């Protein structure tokens, strides 16, 4: 589904991504772990076609990220650090706006359904500017999936969420997985990674330092490997 070969990204004479080789199959839920500055967000931005790679090849469902970037972009649902929402719009207005950008059919119904799914129906007509970080993140999750993407790119999605919102987010990821959606999720939350992901990738200095399968029982394996690779504990 996603094939990444010898991917590099240079900015200001600094090599941020130093040769990433990665192959991801459809329906996989992959957590990307690693210290601050490792290049995790940069990797997601390259995939979301927000920034161009310096060299290397990315193929998504056989399409070339460079040549077919308009088609490829539609396949991705990207949740960055910042919510991308319009402050003075309500959740419904935001979702209808972004849904229209993607040409979503019956957009208002879809938006109402998503507001309900993320547990904010009570606030559907209030401007987003009054919302807490967790509430904004809930709408941002809905925004990222309004066009039913084939791949979700989530950048630290659990940050600032309360327990209810974490459950909603995890359920979104798992129900999208059931529909065949692939997820790449940058996170520092090992517990959530072990709960919803089936594979862990550790990124260090712009390279993949480890790549292994996990299940919900292997939380200790994740922290052990991370400590050895990133924190130098042996
Ligand atoms: N546009 C840019 N220009 C120069 N340096 C950048 C740019 N974007 C990111 N960087 C640098 O690249 C490194 C990796 O950044 P990032 O991908 O955001 O790391 P992570 O998400 O793993 O914390 C950091 O050292 C950051 O300062
Ligand atoms: Mg980051």
Describe this structure in words.
The longest helix is centred in the last third of the chain and has 16 residues, at 163-178. The chain has a 6-stranded mixed beta sheet with strand order 6-7-8-3-9-10, with helices on both faces. The chain has a 4-stranded antiparallel beta sheet with strand order 2-1-4-5, with helices on one face. The protein has 8 helices and 10 strands. The radius of gyration is 18 Å and the shape is globular. By secondary structure, it is of the alpha/beta class. The structure holds adenosine-5'-diphosphate (ADP) and magnesium ion. Adenosine-5'-diphosphate binds next to strand 2 and helix 1.
Give a concise summary:
The protein has 8 helices and 10 strands. With 234 residues, it is an alpha/beta fold.
């Amino acid at each position: 589904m996603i094939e990444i070969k010898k991917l590099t990204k240079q900015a200001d004479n600094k090599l941020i991504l130093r040769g990433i080789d990665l192959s991801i199959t459809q329906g996989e839920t992959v957590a990307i772990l690693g210290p601050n500055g490792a290049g995790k967000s940069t990797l997601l931005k390259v995939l979301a076609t927000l920034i161009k790679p310096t060299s290397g090849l990315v193929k998504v469902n056989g399409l070339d990220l460079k040549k077919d970037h308009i088609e490829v972009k539609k396949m991705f649902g990207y949740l960055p650090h910042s919510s991308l929402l319009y402050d003075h719009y309500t959740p419904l207005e935001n979702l209808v706006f972004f849904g229209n950008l993607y040409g979503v059919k019956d957009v208002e119904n879809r938006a109402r359904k998503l507001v309900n799914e993320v547990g904010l129906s009570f606030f559907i007509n209030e401007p987003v500017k009054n919302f807490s970080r967790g509430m904004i993140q809930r709408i941002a999750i809905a925004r990222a999936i309004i066009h039913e993407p084939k791949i979700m790119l989530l950048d630290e999605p659990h940050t600032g969420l309360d327990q209810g919102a974490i459950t909603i987010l995890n359920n979104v990821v798992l129900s999208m997985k059931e529909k065949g959606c692939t997820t790449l999720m940058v996170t520092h939350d090992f517990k959530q990674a072990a709960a919803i992901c089936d594979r862990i990738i550790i990124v260090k200095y712009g390279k993949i330092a480890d790549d292994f399968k996990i299940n919900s029982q292997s939380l200790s394996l994740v922290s052990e490997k991370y400590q050895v690779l990133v924190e130098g504990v042996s």
